[in-house]
Input
Amino acid sequence: MIVPLSSPDIGRRERDLINEVLDSNILSIGPKVEQFERMVAGYLGVKEAIAVNSGTSGLHLAVRALGIGEGDEVITSPFSFVSSSNCLIFERARPVFADINQRTLNIDPAEIEAKITRKTRAILPVHVFGRPAEMDRILDIARKYRLAVIEDACEAIGACYGGKMAGSESDAGVFAFYPNKQITTGEGGVIATNSSDLAGLCRSMRNQGRSDMGQWLDHCRLGYNYRMDELSAALGVAQMERIDEILARREAVARLYNARLGQLKGLAVPFAEPGVKISWFVYVIRLASGINRDKVLTYLRANGVDCRPYFQPIHLQPFYREMFGFQEGDYPNTERVASSTLALPFFNKLTERQIDYVVGLLAEAVERAANCS
Ligand SMILES: *Cc1c(COP(=O)(O)O)cnc(C)c1O
Output
């Protein structure tokens, strides 16, 4: 049996709306992007949602719109996808990492304050694997030191903490819709904000620095082409129409895994603490120390089950080591977690048969890896 790591869930409605766009002849800057933005803003309960062509573009615009630049420091997590930190380097700001909490895998608020200097301008927490970071504490620290907050919510649409939506409470929350995310637009992202000034800047910068009022060839600031196209937005509209159903389905798949894997020795399954609603992005287990993660991974892959180490620490990526002089041992919690976690196949249409196959192989793999290490 072949089980892929992820797979988008595209139905009849997605095809119909895409055909509608094709028939309209308006392939960019049209009504579907506006509709998608209204749906996302309404869902998150924010004033403005600005659609862009990737999560990375959204993070870049948020950083730029907040005026973060050369000489500034931003405190962020080393346990993330690389773009949550690259977006700072784009603007010549310096990523300053604070280690994670090993239970939540999110930036540890207790580590943040020690990293604040006179150059610190912002905190950029990441809601890793759809589990909300401790935003109440992070926002308190930000208020105390007058720092901006950008949430990398690219893995967390629909995640909640204390009744609040991840990505909705800070200066800007950024979401992503690459095909492996909870909902997809192919490539795409959204910046969510309650600031109309920040929204205006982002709208202008995604569209070559044009203003709303000016002519097509008037450019009032440096801009980019970060626009989302109408086909992507059509896909997004169809997916947003059933986001509750999609997130519920993903939660059901995670529960099935938890029920099957909860008994196995040698690994820990993801958990949700009280007051927190995870939006299931990936399903990541943690292997006990003494079990060789890479051996488990190789065994699963050799038997048709795609799985992946998730994540590699950002500070140990070759160009980060080179640019900033990071070394192994700099962020021990992140490194321990990164060397022992494994993402299993996870998507809406994963069947019970597939789950049973993955779980059976995993049990064998863990036993073998334990015996030979
Ligand atoms: C997916 C993701 C992004 C953005 O990815 P794009 O491929 O640019 O849409 C950013 N940060 C995190 C943590 C992500 O998982």
